[in-house]
Amino acid sequence: MILGHHYVLRRTLQAIGVMWAAFTATFVILYALPGDPVAIMLDARGDGAIANAAQVALLRGQYGFDKPILIQYSEQLMHALRGDFGQSIQTGQGVASTILGALPQTLALALLAWLLALAFGSTIALLGTYPAFSRWRDLVLALPSLCVSVPVFWLGLVLLQVFSFHWHLFPAMGNTGLVALILPALTLAIPVGAGYAQVLARSLDAELAQAYVQTAYSKGASDRRVQWRHVLRNALLPALTLAGMSVGYLLGGSVVTETVFSRVGVGRLIEMAVQTHDIPMVQGLVVLTTLVFVGANLAVDLLCVWLDPRARTVSRSLQERSA
Amino acid sequence: MPAILWLAHAQAAAPTAGGTFLYVQSAFPPCLDVAQSARQQNATRQILDTLLDQDKRTGASIPWLATAWSYEDGGKRLVLTLRHGVTFSNGEPFNAAAVKANFDNLAALAKQGRAGQAGSYLSGYQGADVIAPDKVALRFDSPKAGFLQALSEKTLAPLAPATLAESPDKRCQGDLIATGPFVISQVVQNQRIVLKKRPDYAWPSPNAEHGGPAYLDTITFQTVAEEGVRVGMLTSGQANAVDDISVDDLSQLKSADAHILERNAGGIGLTLYPNLARPIVRDVAVRQALTLAINRQEIIHALYTPYERAATSVLSSGVPDYVDQGQALAYRPADAKAILDKAGWKPGPDGIRVKDGQRLQLNVIWSFAGLTPTLELIKEQLNQVGIALQLNQKTDAEIGGIVRAGNYDLRMSDLTRPDPDVLMTIFSTRFGPGLGAPLPTLDALLDQQSATVDPKARAALVAQIQQIIVSQGYAIPIKESSTLVATAKNVSGLWLSTPRWPVLYDTHLDAP
After folding, report:
1. Which A residues in the span 32-51 are in contact with B, Cβ-Cβ below 8 Å?
2. One digit per residue, pLDDT tens: chain B, 512 residues?
3. SS3 annotation, B421-441
4. Residue A97 forms contact with B (CB below 8 Å)
5. Is A53 on the interface with B (CB under 8 A)?
6. What is A50-106 written as a DSSP string?
7. Residues of B in contact with A263 (CB under 8 A)
8. Is B232's CB within 8 Å of A43's CB?
9. What is the ipTM of this complex?
10. Dihedral of CA B422/B423/B427/B429: which sign?
11. Which of A46, A58, A272 sits opposite B190 (nearest CB)?
12. What is the pTM of this model?
């Protein structure tokens, strides 16, 4: 066993701590914000007519919002531990079932976007640093900065104008099938991929300047072998860490992408729940997104240790020392 | 070839039944049960019939599921005769017992605080008596004049007894069975509502243009939040109708041969309301100056579509008993200045007026993002007469709380309901926060008009109320609200009903 149980256990405990902190912070923020979820629900349904204070008070009691705040917190935490996040105040539907219903849509979007981003990012980085392309280097390496700076929102609208409204190649909205997934995934993939390209290109440059590259060449290794076997493997580490962190960006980006492309998904749920201060829904979504984020970073950390022998020895010697 | 000509003519005359229709709207309804929520109910409205309807030209009450009505006991008892042969889409009969169950359910829902609008319609409801299977009497503790109009609101549309047995939350999610020409077949929260035609439908409103079942087989109401995407979907042929369009979209839509449908939304249009708990706006001179210093024509011309109209009363012109107050709402900046001078508000060093060391500066709150340019223009106009306006845009989540707490000078909003009773929702402290201070005279008049069943006497009271509200500056009306829907060129028979909602019962698609 390369990685000790201690390491995994410690990281898992950390992850639980992060989730508890996120849950508690959300609770504090939601209760500190001006605007009461029950009143917001009543006003939204009134369509211009504002509910009076007596109506609000009556309904707050039915939702249990008149209990002392610490009681509310401990009740919600106990329920959350059992996986029960209650019902959305806005729709009356179960929080867990609503999220689980939307999750596959967002996962499909994020996964396709992530694959496209990896392909796009590594292609740009390799082209930019490949000796044969040195003439185009500056042009190719300017591309990522451009793509990173483009707002997702605007990019989505431009893709829609061109590929849906003008050329009728893709539907403008909806969750039906792979065809409807392509434009939103592309929208999300371009800035994420550009980020990978920047990091990978920089670390490829740095690795190419290392002494071991000269050693490899002097030992008679081919361009391709040096590039792929030696340099890329080392240059991948920072890009991999970034790929793990970009899970958060993909989730955040899905808020905008799902709105522009009118898709059902976790991003849309987040937007709606935050706008209406739908406390049970926000709590459920925060716990879910924290879980995804923490899980992805844990996976990347373990992968890095496995890829990089130095990290492996460090972690082993640390364990021996602690033992 | 006369035979072919005749065939072509016949096709043009008789609409082809069938087809699927995509209606793209800007938001998903927060709750699908109209009794619990008035917002974004384009879809649910298609499945609901009401006891009465409002004539689409005159606004007068006309029969629908109730074929006749009469007031008894000085207006405290309303006897309705029900149409025969009507069924709910689950097969349950529509009869007096079902109508009674519906009103009892609404009254109970209102008691729980879950049916604000229905609650205000049913205030004073004492119960219903089943006289015969086709006759039911509704009892109130005082006469209810506005109630006939309320019976044509989808808020009070009858639902099947099986639906009433469901929880309010279930109904919100779309478990709704009614008597209308369409039935709900699928609901995807925050995305779409799919309706299917009811093949045995045979009791349309007299407002309808045909009899029997609806033409369309399926209608999907799709939510697309982005305005540019909605318009692009219509012009690229992906949608049949889109709503919530603005002046910037008109040329693009027209160049794609789209039809633009307009309906002046009956009710109270875009209006500034003063918070009478605040000292500066409690001064009637300030409110009158605000009324006269706003150039409504300039606002319409600069920011709105040619379909829209400046306000000429607190009620919009489509509401029965509306009285033109255009003279009192004319742009008269010189008069505004004179009123302020007389009240002791003198121009200060920066042009903003001052009285007893206090600057004439007011904050205005609103939550609808589209209103920002309107308020910026109003700010500029008020500046000309020495009033400073501070713009404080709030989110939908914040605005209700701020109004209830009274932390504002002016607020801007609109409200749709085509009956003078709409005034009670805003000005009476019984149904909402009111204007922040009791207005006993106005409250008494509002109650009195609501209880006056004689149409002429009620009209006279409503005229007096409008005159008081405008002359006292209890409301500073800006423009009438209107609804714009764009339909693709192959769409016929889509019309907007009296308040503002689309009716798709007569809608059909022309053969390509």
Report:
1. 34-36, 39-51
2. 344 444 444 444 578 888 999 999 998 998 999 999 888 899 999 999 999 998 888 878 999 999 999 999 988 999 999 999 999 999 999 999 999 999 999 999 988 878 877 887 888 899 999 999 999 999 999 888 788 888 998 999 999 999 999 999 999 999 999 999 999 999 998 889 999 999 999 999 999 999 999 999 999 999 998 899 999 999 999 999 999 888 889 989 999 999 999 888 778 889 999 999 999 999 999 999 999 999 999 999 999 988 889 999 999 887 888 999 999 999 999 999 999 999 999 999 999 999 999 999 999 999 887 899 999 999 999 999 999 999 999 888 788 888 888 999 999 988 877 778 788 888 887 777 788 888 889 999 998 988 888 889 999 999 999 999 999 999 999 999 888 899 999 999 999 887 778 999 999 998 76
3. CHHHHHHCCCCCCCCCCCCHH
4. no
5. yes
6. PPPHHHHHHHHHHHTTTS-HHHHHHHHHHHHHTT---B-TTT-SBHHHHHHHHHHHH
7. 191
8. no
9. 0.83
10. negative
11. A272
12. 0.87
Tokens of B150: 């309320």
Burial classification of residue B396, based on how many CB atoms lie within 10 Å of its CB (0-12 exposed, 13-18 middle, 19 or more buried): middle
Of the candidates A35, A55, A174, the beta carbon closest to that of B113 is on A55
**Closest to B260 measured CA to CA, from B237, B222, B225, B231:** B231
For every residue of A187-199, DSSP letters joined together read HHHHHHHHHHHHH
Nearest-by-Cβ selection for A34 from B188, B396, B401: B401
Length in residues, chain B = 512
Chain B touched by A256 (CB under 8 Å): no
Q: Could you tell me where the DSSP H helices lie in B198-320?
A: 227-235, 250-255, 279-282, 284-293, 296-303
Contact A259 B113 (CB under 8 A): no
Measured between alpha carbons, how far is A176 from A178 in angstroms, rounded to an integer? 7
User: Looking at chain B, which residue has its C-alpha nearest residue A269?
Assistant: B190
- Residues 6 or more apart whose Cβ sits within 8 Å of residue B251: none
Enclosing H/E stretch for B416:
strand B410-416
Which residue from B173, B395, B413 is facing A91, i.e. has the nearest CB? B173
Tell if the CB–CB gap between B114 and A59 is shorter than 8 Å: yes
Residue where the block lists tokens 């889509």: B494
Whether A91 sits inside 8 A of B170 (CB atoms) is no
Q: Which residues of B touch A172 (CB under 8 A)?
A: 224, 229, 232-233, 236, 238
Kindly state whether A94 is in contact with chain B, defined as any CB-CB distance less than 8 angstroms: no
Task: Give me the residues paired with residue B271 across strands.
Answer: B413, B477
| Pairwise CB contact (< 8 Å): B238 & A269 | no
Take residue B401 and report the two structure tokens written for it: 């709380």
Residues of B in contact with A262 (CB under 8 A): 191, 222-226, 229
